[in-house]
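Next comes this protein:
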Amino acid sequence: MSIKQSHYEELLAEYSNAAAAIALLKQYRPYLELLPSMRRPDQSIITIPLPVVNLRHTSPSAQAGVTTSVREAHCLPCDLAMLMCDPEWKIKTGVEVFVFIHRPEEDFSDLLRRWRQTQVLLSKGYEWEMPLRYRHILNEGADNLYPLFVVFEGTPERIKRGLKGAYLPFVTQSLEINEESQTEPNLDEVVLTENREENL
């Protein structure tokens, strides 16, 4: 089955929900263990689809020897950011998981480049553009960045082989959408079967 835009969009919409994001982490246990609280997992994670960060850097001013601090907004090339939060103290921890869903027509170098670009962008000081309901939470960036790749059963084997070779964790999803339907697919028309790849 070839990867279509609707397959990508379905998973992006699905994982934007915290409960579905936790279900994704359950497929890769080392990341599931990063949740601050297993008793309150839904309060331990903030999901941000197509996230935006504000990068901080200094810029020389007109006065000699004086620099000013500048914030510049950037849309990260990942598909979803998962920020871990302490449900007791209502603060963000230092753990951030970045999800990269295989996009249509995307080859291994394209997929890997999105993670490398994320690493480069976040090597500087940054702050999150938080969703409105989480604006009260401290939005400073973290030092612990964890990638998670989501591929399909129809994803070319070279991409899976490349991710294994680069020691990058990934899970495989099977997404079947009723091709004859002319309307937008809904959850009743979608069957998600989750398979975990042993890759580390």
The two ends are 26 Å apart (CA to CA). Strands lie at 45-49, 52-60, 67-75, 80-86, 91-101, 126-128, 144-152, 170-177, 190-196. Helices lie at 5-15, 18-25, 29-32, 108-121, 157-165. The first strand starts at residue 45 and ends at 49.
